[in-house]
Amino acid sequence: MADSTRRGGIALNHRLLAQAIVILIAFLGGGFLATLVGGDEPVGQLRSQRANEQLQQQLDSALGRLEMLRTRREVDQRALEMVRSELAVQKEHIAELEEGLRFYRSLIAPEGAGGGLSLREPELLATEEAGRYLLRLVVQQVARKHEKVEGSLEVTLTGNLGGETVSLALPELSEDFVGPALKLRFRYFQLLEGELVLPAGFEPQSVNIVARANSPRAMDIQKEFPWHLQERFTHVGQ
Questions:
Q1: For residue 8, which phi and psi values (nearest 5 degrees)?
Q2: N or C: which end of the chain has fewer CB within 10 A?
Q3: CA atoms of 89 and 81, how far apart (whole Å)
Q4: Rounded to a whole number, what is the distance in angstroms from the first to the last CA of the chain?
Q5: What is the model's pTM?
């Protein structure tokens, strides 16, 4: 439908342009013919002047309509671009909401008949400053009946420093995580975020996480994840 409208507008522009050209030719030809026929007679000159004025009015009118159509076409194109841009933003927003919904479902929906703790892969984002990163950790309870969990979380980064493999505890790298162990207290999940500042020359390779619960019962889980940067955090309504 848009293509047919565009073709119709182009055809109308062509017709107006052709009309303007015809009027211009008539304008020039009419004046020349009146001079040949009327000679120097005042009546012939008056008729020629009136004819020229009429043709000039028609020409101005056709050119005005042509300019109006060109302006309208430019406005329509800009409006179409704005609509397309807005649709792209809305699609991105919907995708983020769907991602957040999947995130919450994966945290709250029970998996299997058993229970225990579960660790999601840590999310890491680079900042504009070299050696500084944003970290998000998520610990969740997998159970059909969610009771309040209390315990602790320990995180260490393993990497290469000066040709040697070293492990650094999270509290050594961040003022946002006070330790040696981070406190856990949640029913469904707990989200912890903060900024890391790595030592100069340290090349991180993996993140080792140990979660321990002492209430409602003793349980623990340990996982090692590769150091992996991403563009943004998973959307969770923030």
A1: -65, -40
A2: N
A3: 12
A4: 41
A5: 0.58
